[in-house]
Design goal:
The protein has 168 residues and is of the alpha/beta class. The chain has a single domain, classed as YbaK/aminoacyl-tRNA synthetase-associated domain (YbaK protein, Alpha-Beta Complex). 26% of the residues lie in helices and 30% in strands. The chain starts with 8 loop residues before the first helix and ends in a 9-residue tail after the last strand. It comes from Providencia rustigianii DSM 4541. Keywords: Ligase. Pfam families: tRNA_edit.
Amino acid sequence: MNVVSDNGIFTQLTQLLDNHHAKYRVIEHPTAGKSEEVAKIRGTQLGQGAKGLVCHVKGNGLRQHVLAILPADQQADLSKIAKAIGGTRASLASPKEVDELTHCVFGAIPPFSFHPSLTLIADPYLFTRFEELAFNAGSLERSIILNTHDYQRIAKPTLVEFIRTEVE
């Protein structure tokens, strides 16, 4: 298996989790960026994946970056994110913004914000189905499977309902 390079995020994550006595395990695996693909490799359900979207919210005099976390088997309604934050519109951040705010590539963003300008939100549905959440831990070759309650306790995301529903 390849040796996984550390961009610093993995070390920050594991130190944070260890300092808070979290129940978690690390899995090194072949490169995987798509949620379905990495869930199979991890041996987890697709809905256990904690997908992170870096969004740029604007309007009403607001310019804010948000890290929105939701189950990997769901889609985000960006207008709900914008409204909840106090803006009028939201878009996905550019790859350059994602790199600057997370030091990760798309698909490798963990559900934690280590940047003061990146507000962390999570859809409450993330916490209702599984005892463990899985996410890429700063690279496409390394995942962490973390106790769901420990994630919520340590990350303390603001809860915002922003999952897209079919009737919209």
